[in-house]
Amino acid sequence: MNEDRAVRPARPATAALLNLLCHLAAGAPAEMLAPAAAADRAALDDPAEQAALDAALDAALDIRHTLDQHRRREAELAALFDTASDLAALRDTDAVLRAIVHRARTLLGTDVAYLTLHDPAAGDTFMRVTDGSASAGFQQLRLGMGEGLGGLVAQTARPYTSTDYRTDRRFQHTEAIDTAVADEGLRGILGVPLRVGARVIGVLFAADRRPRTFAPDAVALLASLADHAAVALDNARLLEETRTALVGLDTANRTARAHGEALRRAADAHDRLTALVLRGATVGEVAAQIAALLGGDLSVHDADGTALARVGTAPAAPPADAVAASCAGGRAVPADGTWVCAVPAGSELLGSLVLTGRPDLSDADRRLFERAALVTALLLLLRRSVAEAEDRVRGELLDDLLTPRAPDTGRLARRARRLGVDLTHPHAVLALDCDAETRPRLVAEAARHARHHGGLAGTRDGHVLLLLPAGDCARLARELARALGRSLGTPVTAGAAGPATGPEHLPATHAEALRCLAALHALGRTGDGADLAALGFLGVLLADRGDVPGFVRRVLGPVLDYDERRGTDLARTLDAYFACGASPARAKDDLHVHINTVVQRLDRVGRLLGPDWNTPARALELQLALQLHRLAR
């Protein structure tokens, strides 16, 4: 019985079902299952078996379709995973966008894929990336909200498809969109939104150049890709913003470090310069330190532009307009390749600093230069305070020295020595005068001259007085009047007397200097400088002790010396000439010589005394000197 069962042949219907299952198991496509079942069905005679085979074929086709769907879904899921992995690895926004569009075209097998992004400023979307596109106009297309398929997707945040966009009246057609779509040749179009939360940031498209109906699976696949793409795109945006923020933070850190270093350097420089000032450093020492800190050459000037100190630079006056601009703005200013910084004390200009050799001064060094000007202002104020105190002491001493009484001259001499004035050497007393408005500046300039030359300066009875070491008082008075006149910009008159040695002679010398100053004004020589001796016979009259031989020597000296050397008689000829009313013809009779001899002698006198010897003023002095000389003989 077992043997009968083993050798019994299979029934035809069973064999047909087994054959169908084998094809299905082998993975045969649906197109192969129907022909195979039709061949087996022809071998069956029983209609019931044929119907059963037809039902089995339908089930096999359903199974095949289900397996194909699962396989396709697995492929799509694998592609989505690959896409997510690829997008996660990208860090550049442009690379992310290109990858999104290329993968969409590949997964859906379309002719073209493209992506638009939302422009919040313009309120529309613009074409950002395309893949497979050939039309330049299409690649530059912009879609308003609600316009066309893409504008509707962006406005509603819902996917839309069109089997043939050209004839699809569901969408708002515009000339620009229709022209661009026609240029690209697109027919079937699918668009899905790119969303980050509730916000639509763009639209992802897949399109064919032939009519195409996009199945729900294709819509779901592109929507899934769009979701991945939106997250990756937002991550790329956040990453780029983070990178930008980090770059900005790094720049800010570098700026802060540089600013901190500049502040530290400026504070250190300020401390070093202040320490120099407090130790009693000179302007030159402070200038050398500033030049070393800034790596350039420096000159320090007072308010009048006079150089107080120079470090490695040639003498040059600071540009007045640059000093004024710096003083007005409170900042260092560039001027012809140099930097100028005013040195103010409140509203008063004390001086200026001029830096050369650093045309490219950085902001930090510029602030350091300005801080150096503040320290220089402190130094100049201290110097001025010390100088003013010293000037008061010197002025008090000068007042005591010129007082006409019998003080303790030894005590005065000791006070003078403590101030660096040695009264055992000859000194001149000078009385200075200028207009009333400029007199305060004249006092300051006189004090500066006194400090520079080792003398004393002060005021007494409305006059500015100087006590200076001197040998030639007349020359000193002339030079001082010219120098002070140039410095102050107004005429300065200087009357001198002396030189005197010892404190006991100074009161009388002072009185003589005042008489000389008054005589200069009376003679109309305001702005000039002289002593009484230089005023000729008027000086002899005004002097306390008339120096007659000195006057004769100053007026007639060259003639007397010539007569003594040559044995000539020029002085007698000159005396006869004036005695005869300046007539050579009458003088020849008194001299008993030819008139040509008189003329030759007078020519010699002119060469010895100068061409103006016969002017009224010189002639008067010559006649007085001749009479005094005759009396002395």
Notes on the protein architecture:
This protein is α+β, with helices and mostly antiparallel strands and 633 residues long. Helices cover 59% and strands 16% of the residues. The strands form 3 sheets. Strands 3-2-1-6-5-4 form a 6-stranded antiparallel beta sheet. Strand 9 and strand 10 form a beta hairpin.
- Integer-rounded radius of gyration: 58 Å
Instruction: Let me know the average pLDDT.
Output: 79
Low-confidence stretches: 1-9
**Classification by helices and strands:** alpha+beta
Helix proportion range: 55-70%
For the biggest sheet, the summary is: 6 strands, antiparallel
What is the count of DSSP helices, taking H or I runs of 4+ residues? Answer: 22
Distance between the termini: 196 Å
- Principal-axis shape equals rod-shaped
Q: Say how many strands there are.
A: 16
Strand order of the largest sheet: 3-2-1-6-5-4
Strand content: 15-25%
Describe what is shown at a glance:
The chain has helices at 2-7, 12-25, 30-42, 47-89, 93-108, 136-139, 148-156, 175-184, 216-278, 283-294, 320-329, 363-402, 409-418, 439-453, 473-488, 506-522, 537-542, 548-566, 570-579, 584-591, 595-609, 616-632, and strands spanning 112-119, 124-131, 142-144, 160-162, 189-196, 199-207, 297-302, 307-311, 333-335, 338-345, 348-356, 427-433, 456-460, 463-469, 493-500, 529-531. With 633 residues, the chain is of the alpha+beta class.
